[in-house]
Amino acid sequence: MRYSFLFAAASLSGLLAAPLPARAQRAANPTQPWGSWFIGTLQLPGSEEHRWGGFFEFQARTNAVFRQYFYNELKGGLSYDINKNFVVLLGGGRYATRDYQDWGAGPLNVEKRLWGQLTLTQYASRLKLEHRYRVEQRWFSYRADSTGQRNRLRYRINAFLPLNHSALGPKTVFLSVYDEIFLNPRGPVFERNRVYAGAGYQLTRGLTLQAGWVLQANYNLPTIKQGQFVPQNTSAKNNVVLALSYRLARRNATAPAPERLPSQQD
To answer: Of 76, 99, 165, 235, which one's alpha carbon is 20 to 30 angstroms from that of 222?
Structure first.
């Protein structure tokens, strides 16, 4: 009961705090329609027996709910389990953005990304916490033949609360919330904030379904355009998230599979 209360309190405080930056400043962008994210992930987790693992993921996003497809991600990575609480990962991916109104014109921007990551997990009797630290290198290619390069730091805290069992496993219903901040050394330092809340069901030891809501807010630096000062503005968008993940099992494993957190890779 104590962990359930803490989980609810943390969730409520995160959801109330997320829109504050947007309310504190007058948004320069009009209200955006709800969008949708579709995420499919294939994982090979590491363990104390087999420390090497990896993942492969495809993600698609739409500007409106279930329509106006404009964005996709294709990424993968190689992981190593230091122990059951610490995992390091090296990942890379391709991220393409198009104009949904002119799909045939090709991508507006293609980003290639490489990152290093450390994940720390904490298992209580019921509440599960994950801390994820990531350093990204990003290379951009724009339709106008220009290019760019930026680095970014990310931190995410993700909480899971199984409802009908004390641990996450087959036939378990769970709640999940996370908050992630994106920091850019070149500015704006506080580049993005992402808040998620959802529910999931682990059907089998390998297959998990999740559905939820994510609010992604981007923050732009103040600029001077055509001799006029343009103040800092915030662009925020709500999205429906549908995620399907499948975790592969090792045939030659002798120890029972440990509890796994159904974390989203992005």
So the answer is: 99
